[in-house]
Design brief:
By secondary structure, this protein is mainly alpha-helical. It has one domain (24-244, 259-492): Growth Hormone, Chain: A, CATH 1.20.1250.20. It is built from 21 helices and no strands.
Length: 497
């Protein structure tokens, strides 16, 4: 029996089961970004020996295909009508493509080259796009209410962080196994034992050395195999569960010519602002994430990277209720500003860290993790409200198109942020295979700046755009009332024919 949506009225409350079942698909989808940003570059560069700068260029080239596929899939899912719904057919199509792409990309043969990397990366991106965009648009249509959309987005992002925690647990397990009998507490203690003060001070340092010894190269292969299995097992199960949720009734069919739709988009000021904010914030985040493993492992000297990220995502999950409350209290955009300010300060504070500063790094990283939930769900909740501006002006329901455009912007920002960071760090002489020992001073400095200072340039550019964001809760309430009246007029005309 399908989960039912009680009403599309602004005042109706969505069933909790509907919200949580619909968000479930974010669990396997969230596993995508972690290996792409954190583990794949070190594996293909450090273990397979491919040039780090060239990998960055390929990541950018592969993502350029999204300029075509994202708007196309978004537009198609908006226009689709059929017994299976508007969004569901694309999720069904994308699931096997993403599973195949994930396995071949994450578990490459030892002789895999640049062409292999480009082909399977592109197929992986296509499969994920077919799932992510319709799913996000579907979520925006579950309710027209400003705060209920925050609940839908928060539930989805809860699953995102849960999936990231599951993904971070994979390298944690590999680290423990690599320690040749090292206990779980011993692996965790390597990065933050003095901060938590829960582990015995007698833990011998030599017990931790096997983990650090295998962290550079041998660990990336088993980690990616584990992450590939995580996606292949979770994705079909979660997709089947989500398909039991009933889609909202399709709005009265009202075709909007492509040129007219583009004109409405260009005149949608909040949407243009969201696109620019998305570009700046995700570029900054990706610029840092691309070199995070190298910074944590080689600059700070933490070998148990899985334990660090596990706690990072745990802090993100714990913080979601706070960001949801703050968004209701001061507005989503002002809560987003607070998130960026804290993240920027934390990034800058990492600059002077050196080998052995494990406790200070962990405290900063935990604080950054607390802000991660806000960075994830607040912009998406803002986007759902922006779609209403278009609905009022065009008379259509084009959530798929709008989420496709933002999704394309996110992917391009991630690709170019990741790619440019790897290109700069690699070109200036950082060696992914040998770390500090085989790197130039310029390469090490570029790594330090890329992780700590680089993101600030982009965060700072986005702050003013977010602070002056015009779509407040009060304005959105008036906007929704006008949209509902327009929908009723269109439905009345359709019924009269």
């Amino acid at each position: 029996m399908q989960n039912r949506i009680t009403s599309n009225d602004a005042g109706a409350v969505l069933a909790r089961r509907t919200i949580w079942t619909h968000g479930l698909l974010a669990l396997p989808l969230s596993v995508i970004g972690y290996p792409l940003n954190i583990w794949i570059p070190p594996h293909y560069a450090g273990t397979l020996g491919l040039p780090l700068a060239t990998l960055g260029l390929i990541i950018m080239l592969a993502r350029l295909t999204d300029v075509i596929t994202d708007p196309l899939i978004g537009e198609l899912s908006d226009r689709t009508r059929g017994r299976f719904g508007r969004r569901k057919p694309y999720i069904v199509l994308g699931t096997p493509l993403m599973m195949l792409g994930a396995w071949c990309l994450f578990v490459p043969p030892s002789d895999a080259g640049l062409v292999y990397f480009l082909v399977w990366l592109s197929l992986f991106f296509l499969g994920s796009t077919l799932i992510q965009l319709p799913h996000a648009a579907w979520g925006a249509e579950l309710s027209p209410d400003y705060h209920q959309r925050s609940r839908v987005t928060a539930a989805r992002e809860f699953y995102v962080l849960g999936g990231l925690m599951a993904a971070a647990a994979v390298p944690l397990v590999v680290e423990v196994m690599a320690g040749r009998g090292l206990s779980l507490s011993g692996a965790l203690a390597h990065g933050w034992q003095q901060f938590l003060a829960l582990f015995p001070s007698s833990t011998p340092r030599e017990a931790l050395e096997p983990v650090a010894a295998v962290a550079r190269a041998a660990m990336t292969g088993p980690v990616l195999v584990g992450l590939a299995w995580l996606i292949v097992l979770l994705l079909p199960i979660c997709a089947l569960a989500v398909l039991t949720v009933r889609e909202p009734e399709a709005p009265p069919r009202q075709r909007i010519p492509l040129r007219e739709g583009a004109r409405h988009l260009w005149r949608n000021g909040p949407m243009k602002r969201i696109l620019l904010i998305t570009l700046l914030v995700h570029f900054g985040e990706s610029f840092r994430n691309a070199v995070s493993v190298f910074f944590i492992r080689d600059i700070v000297g933490i070998g148990t990277i899985g334990s660090v990220y596990f706690m990072y995502f745990a802090a993100g999950i714990a913080a979601i209720p706070f960001w949801l409350w703050l968004g209701r209290k001061v507005g989503k955009h002002r809560a987003f500003v607070g998130t960026l300010v804290v993240v920027g300060l934390v990034s800058a504070a990492n600059f002077p860290l050196e080998q052995g500063d494990h406790e200070l790094f962990f405290m900063l990283f935990l604080l950054k993790g607390f802000c991660f939930g806000g960075l994830q769900f607040l912009p998406l909740a803002m986007l759902a409200d922006v779609v209403d501006v278009d609905s009022l002006r065009s008379g259509g329901r084009r959530a798929g198109t709008y989420f496709a455009l933002v999704g394309m912007m996110v992917k391009l920002a991630i690709a170019f942020g990741t790619g440019s960071s790897l290109i700069v760090v690699g070109a200036l002489g950082f060696d992914a295979a040998t770390g500090l020992a085989g790197s130039t001073d310029a390469g090490v400095l570029a790594l330090r700046i890329g992780y700590t200072i680089g993101p600030l340039l982009f965060y700072g550019s986005a702050l003013w755009l977010i602070w002056t964001y015009p779509l407040t809760p009060e304005r959105h309430a008036r906007l929704r009332a006008r949209v509902e009246r327009r929908i009723q007029r269109i439905a009345a005309r359709e019924a009269a024919r």
